[in-house]
From TrEMBL:
Coiled coil: none
Name the UniProt record assigns to this protein: DNA replication complex GINS protein PSF1
Protein encoded by which gene: Gins1
Native organism: Jacana jacana (Wattled jacana)
This protein's GO CC annotations: GINS complex
The protein's role, per its UniProt record: Required for correct functioning of the GINS complex, a complex that plays an essential role in the initiation of DNA replication, and progression of DNA replication forks. GINS complex seems to bind preferentially to single-stranded DNA.
High-level lineage: Eukaryota, Metazoa, Chordata, Craniata, Vertebrata
Amino acid sequence: ECNQADVSEAKSGRTDLIFLIRFRHCCLLRNQRCVLAYLYDRLLRIRALRWEYGSVLPTTIQFHMSAEEVEWFNQYKKSLATYMRSVGGEEGLDLTQDIKPPKSLYIEVRCLRDYGEFEIDDGTTILLKKNSQHFLPRWKCEQLIRQGVLEHILS
C-alpha cells in the first residue's frame, strides 16, 4: 500500500521516490520467492510422507498440516492410486511395496502393539497381538512395519 501511494506521488513529479519504490518492490519479490520455496519444500515433504506412511497419515502429523496441505495430500493419494491401478494388468501394481529390494520373500516380525486379525493372500488369518512373533511374506507386512505395528527381527 505504501508503494502504491509512492507510485502515485512519483507519477505526479516526485522523482526522489523512485529508488524507494524499486527497493520495496525488490524486497516484496524476494519475500515472495522465499515463501514459494518454503511451500514447495513442504509439498515435497508431504509427498514423501505418502511413500513413507502409506495412504493414512498419523494424527500427530496431520495436526501440523493446514487444511490445504491435507487436501493436497488426499489429491496426491488419489492420483497415485489411479496410476497404480492403470499399470500392471488387472490387479494393478503397488509401487509402494518393496521400496528396498528384498533379500528373502518371508521375514520374521514381532508385533509391537495389538493390531487384531491380519489376513494373508492364501486366506490364513493371523492374530497380531503385542510381543507375538510371526513368519510372514515381506510384501504383505512391509506397510505395517512402516506404520510401526510390526518390527522386523533380524537374525
